[in-house]
Amino acid sequence: MKLEQRHLFWILASVLLLIALWKPWQQSKNTSDLWTTNLREMKADLTFEGVSYTKNIGEKTQWVLKANVARLYEDKNIMDLERIKIKFSPTGGSHVIVIADSGIYRIDDDEMSLNGNVKIHFENGSTLFSESMHFSQKKKLIWTRDKVLIKGDALEMEGKGLEYDLQKGKLTVKRQTAVLPENGELEL
User: Structure pTM?
Assistant: First the structure.
C-alpha cells in the first residue's frame, strides 16, 4: 500500500509539472502568429496619429504610406495601421494608389497585409475593389485570394484572387468569373 501511494504521488507531481510547463508555452504560441493575433489587445510601445512613412531603395521612392493612426510594437517590429493610403511608384513611371481601412506592416520582412474596403486606383483610371490585399516589397508583388472587382474602360471584371507585379506593371486576375460592360449590355 505504501508503494502505491508513493507512485501515485510521483504521477500527480509529474502531471502538475506538465500542466505548469504547458500553459506558458501554449500562450506564447498564440501570440507568435501576428497575422492572426488581434494586436489591439496588446499594448503598443508607441502610438502615432497622422503618420507618413516613405520606403526608399537607393534614391528611388518605392512607396509612401499615410495612416490616420499607427501603433508600433517594437519587440515584434510591426506597425498596426488604421485608415491607410499608399502611393506605389512602379518602375514604369505610373503610380498606383491603395486605400484600406486597416493593416499590419511587418517592418523586418517588408510585408503588409491590408483589410477592409481595399481599393487600388491605377493611373489609367481603373479601380480594383477587394476585402483584403497583401504586399511584399521583396517579391515586388501585390496579391489577394479574396473576391475582386475591377472597374475601368467601360468594363467590369470579377474574379477570385489576383496578383499585381509592381516591377512589370502586370495584373493577373485568378479565376475570372465575369467581364461585363458598365451599361450591362455586351455587343459582339
Answer: 0.68
Q: Give me the half-sphere count of Cα atoms (radius 13 Å) on the Cβ side of residue 163.
A: 9
pLDDT tens digits, one per residue of 61-95: 888 999 999 999 888 889 999 999 999 876 666 78
Q: Give me the helices (H) in 115-168, please.
A: none
Contact assessment for residue 47 and residue 69, using Cβ atoms and an 8 Å cutoff: yes
Kindly report, residue by residue over 103-145, the tens digit of the pLDDT.
999 988 889 999 999 998 988 888 989 999 998 888 888 899 9
What are the C-alpha distances in Å from 79 to residues 13, 36, 58, 123, 187?
43, 14, 23, 28, 48
Whole-angstrom CA distances from 50 to 1, 53, 132, 149 are 73, 10, 22, 30
Residues 129-163, buried b or exposed e (16+ Cβ, 10 A)? Answer: ebebbbbeeeebebbbeebbebeeeeeebbbebbe
Cα distances (angstroms) measured from residue 55 to each of 19, 89, 168:
46, 10, 19
User: Does residue 186 contact residue 180 with C-beta atoms inside 8 Å?
Assistant: yes
